[in-house]
């Protein structure tokens, strides 16, 4: 490891920093989504809609109090604001949840882009080093030339490995966010429909 760091030149240090940062982010996001999965309560989501059809608002508030399922939280906020602006309240709550879900995603996105660029920078500096040796000593000592070439190759490989290794978890976490948004929108729309039907029935009476 340290031999590769030495051969790769100074560019290997920012690449090492990128790898440490992205590893920490991946573990943190994996822990976060594991918690989301544990807190998911799909039966309660459907039960809330059934209770809403019966106008059991007090029971809904009791059942949703303290629940950390993101979809349930959106429904809970919507029901609390049912006499005001339910859609706006649910939208605001969903945005706050998505913001927490998207935390550190820009860091991963940046490293996916920056790591290969740092690798290319290392390639350029390595080739420049090799040409400087050639211009100074010719081919008197081929080992000096291969040192620059090794630097170029090592940094390129390191940058690509970091970027490729980051793409997969990034896309996975991004798909989880999109999936969560879909369910929040789906249940929020169902709740709005239920409440509109109830209001229509009250007006008819």
UniProtKB/TrEMBL annotation:
Localization: Cell membrane
Pfam families associated with the record: MotA_ExbB
Keywords: Cell membrane, Flagellar rotation, Membrane, Protein transport, Transmembrane, Transmembrane helix, Transport
One cellular component (GO) term of this entry: plasma membrane
Keyword NADP: no
One GO BP: archaeal or bacterial-type flagellum-dependent cell motility
Limits of the MotA/TolQ/ExbB proton channel domain: 82-185
Domain of life: Bacteria
Membrane-spanning residues: 12-32, 110-132, 152-173
Keyword Transmembrane helix tagged: yes
Membrane topology, as annotated: Multi-pass membrane protein
Family: Belongs to the ExbB/TolQ family.
PANTHER family linked to this entry: BIOPOLYMER TRANSPORT PROTEIN EXBB, PROTEIN TOLQ
The protein, known as: Outer membrane transport energization protein ExbB
Lineage per the UniProt record: Bacteria, Pseudomonadati, Thermodesulfobacteriota, Desulfobulbia, Desulfobulbales
